[in-house]
């Protein structure tokens, strides 16, 4: 059997959210596309481990209902988002303080289904009422400073929520910590609220991130609600994959080299195509595309515990302003999304930023006991997930629109080309698909053969 001139119009290397989203846009425009993924499943870093009825995210990315790309992707119309309680809880001096709740902050956008957190909902069957009397109580105000300081912060968040993105991107660029101080915000407000909040949003507790990226993160926080996908992080890439025609995604296929019209794999030889889109992580992309800049990364460790006596947080994200231990933020995730734990059990997920301590589980338990104000010695450890290259760093100067078109026929996308968020990964895919369609003239299908099967027959 003669091998066709092209086995697909476009070959996408990598089946993370960026590659899958780009493939969906290309196929919707009539461009035949094959997605090759080295791993046995799709999703990349957005993966979820299933253990005894629990759903445990490996990195635990926080989403926002204000992410525009979530609503712009038709394949994500069925995505259900479970929202945390408005604002966040901040632990400081042994107390919990409610902070950052914006009046009228957004619910779901477009066709997304944002579901209220369980602060006012009935508790799942079989789960006892949480929290002993010794648990810290939430108080408004501190550690945000005086009433004047709080009013200034509220005004700043309100302005961010309504400022056009392009205007934010024209602001002078500094490390986020320096930029916040230069705007006249009190040191107590920065260290007591903005630093732990941005650490949760950007995985950068030192605030070395570009101030423009920090402004975008704060804008999404102020305009929407923090949330997680119902059922686990891997639901998002799985929805994208299921929206593609059968036979589009091929897992377990390792790409060894790329060119403008060829992809070489370890298992199936060469694939002929009209264009190649590399949609892998930053390190793998640089291996396939020599000369591509490799970013630094923020390591992330997520520790999952279960208990039948969960602390009371009302479905809130809990931050540590005192930096009194390894945990940057934590939540009783099963209060926000009951599908992540079996009936009668609670799931507590905690995030450690930077290099973890030697005995991370013990250190996290001790810290959680202080944060929640409850004993944690009997909590069961479900998993400890350490990801050294979890989140690309965005130190200034950072180009939020790094080129996705390297040359005609060769393209790249991913969170390392935009912002280090799910929004950034999806937006870079949008830009890459648009560039490919412009270069191909939005040509329709040339050949609809399954490239893996065609190559196997030709061999």
UniProtKB/TrEMBL annotation:
Record organism: Streptomyces galbus
Required cofactor names: FAD
Gene3D superfamilies on file: FAD/NAD(P)-binding domain, Protoporphyrinogen oxidase, mitochondrial, domain 2
Biased composition (Low complexity): 134-143
Transmembrane spans: none
Keywords: Oxidoreductase
A Pfam family hit: Amino_oxidase
ATP-binding keyword on record: no
GO molecular function, one term: oxidoreductase activity
Keyword Phosphoprotein applies: no
Protein name: FAD-dependent oxidoreductase
InterPro entries: Amino_oxidase, FAD/NAD-bd_sf, Flavin_amine_oxidase
Residue span(s) of domain Amine oxidase: 17-437
Residues bound to FAD: 37-38
